[in-house]
Design brief:
The chain contains 14 helices and 15 strands. By secondary structure, the chain is α/β, with parallel strands linked by helices. The chain folds into two domains: 163 residues, ATPase, nucleotide binding domain (Nucleotidyltransferase, domain 5), CATH 3.30.420; 119 residues, ATPase, nucleotide binding domain (Nucleotidyltransferase, domain 5). A seven-stranded mixed beta sheet has the order 2-3-12-11-10-13-14, with helices on both faces. Strands 4-9-8-5-6-7 form a six-stranded mixed beta sheet, sandwiched between helices. A two-stranded antiparallel sheet has the order 1-15. A hairpin with a 3-residue loop joins strand 10 and strand 11. The longest helix is centred in the C-terminal third of the chain and has 23 residues.
Length: 342
């Protein structure tokens, strides 16, 4: 897909800086637009960017993509997790390395930063202060804009048009973007939210294994396999859990889906609970007026067979991914792979 000249497929008009405001139902206007100029208090006239970089930073991995001003995809790179809420400094370092990598791959590393715009869609970005902190870590660029990854995923899913999105990966959330208003549902973090996520699927599996070990509940092939990971040492599992992060729990989710497909009753119950949570998020987005809702994320894809048929049929595939959503957020354009091949 790289190196071919596509037609422009999508563009999103960008407004001015927006601050997140709280409402009873969630967060409205929850994406933030900053430039290095506005953050310093001095407006500057920048030459039009000649490259747009989108960064999708999640709890499992981080992806960066560079597109030219015509929307052609020129380079992509994938790195380690970049969750600004868990470890801000480490997340910034990962993102910096990936930005350098895509600039190198595309031949744009000799270009001045003042000709490059960057959009960030980041897990763990919760308010305007977080966004400002991220943008300040990347000075000198023509434009730097940051938003929660749910926002950029929704922008990408509908190419900037109104719509809703359910994200079910390591974490979970839904977002509705309707008539200039954004509302995020869920996405409150591993400790108090993220129902239907890979992290909670993994946590539920470990809790089931613990109960089985203590003979407080039935055992199954799933619980036996999980205990085997810790060499049947429950103390080792407890010690691991003390420092485990959401992504560590999420790493157990594929085992749960595999056992559910094989008829394991405990795995099936865990997956059914996750599917119900995903369905609730979808209904929430529809209830806020989203004309269509997309489902993304590894857990979302794996959960489709377990969703109610009506819900499964209504959840569309995204037009573009969250990384392209970040490019749109930065003011760039994107082109579909079909158009890029023309």
């Amino acid at each position: 897909m790289f190196g071919k000249r596509p037609h422009i497929a999508a563009i999103i008009p960008l407004g001015s800086r927006r601050d997140k405001t709280r409402t009873r139902d969630g967060f409205t206007r929850s994406w933030f637009c900053f430039t290095s100029a506005s953050m310093s208090g001095a407006e500057r006239d920048m030459a039009s960017p000649i490259a747009f970089i989108g960064v999708d930073g999640g709890a499992t991995r981080c992806r960066a993509r560079l597109r030219g001003p015509d929307g052609a995809a020129l380079a992509e790179a994938v790195g380690a997790a970049a969750n600004v809420h868990v470890d801000f400094a480490a997340a910034v370092e990962v993102m910096r390395r990936l930005i350098v990598e895509v600039r190198d791959k595309s031949g744009r590393n000799a270009d001045r930063e003042s000709r490059i715009a960057i959009g960030f869609g980041l897990a763990g970005l919760n308010d305007a202060g977080d966004a400002a902190k991220v943008c300040a870590a990347f000075p000198g660029y023509a434009r730097v804009r940051a938003a929660n990854d749910a926002t950029t995923a929704c922008i990408g899913a509908h190419a900037g048009a109104d719509g809703g999105l359910v994200i079910a990966g390591t974490g979970s959330a839904a977002i509705a973007r309707v008539a200039g208003k954004e509302t995020i549902i869920g996405g409150r973090g591993f400790a108090v939210g993220d129902d239907g996520s890979g992290a909670h699927i993994g946590l539920d599996a470990l809790r089931a294994a613990t109960r089985a070990y203590d003979r407080l509940a039935p055992a199954s092939a799933l619980t036996s396999e999980i205990l085997g990971v810790f060499e049947d040492d429950i103390v080792a599992m407890v010690r691991w859990a003390r420092t485990a992060r959401p992504g560590d729990y999420g790493a157990f989710a594929p085992r749960v889906f595999q056992h559910a497909a094989n008829g394991d009753p405990i795995a099936a119950a865990i997956v059914a609970s996750a599917a119900a949570a995903i369905a609730a998020l979808a209904r929430g987005a529809v209830g806020l007026g989203a004309p269509r809702v997309a489902l993304v994320g590894g857990v979302g894809d794996a959960s489709r067979p377990y969703l109610e048929p009506e819900i499964a049929a209504s959840l569309i595939r995204p037009l573009f991914d969250a990384t392209d959503g970040a490019i749109l957020l930065a003011g760039g354009v994107v082109a579909s792979e079909r158009e890029a091949a023309q």
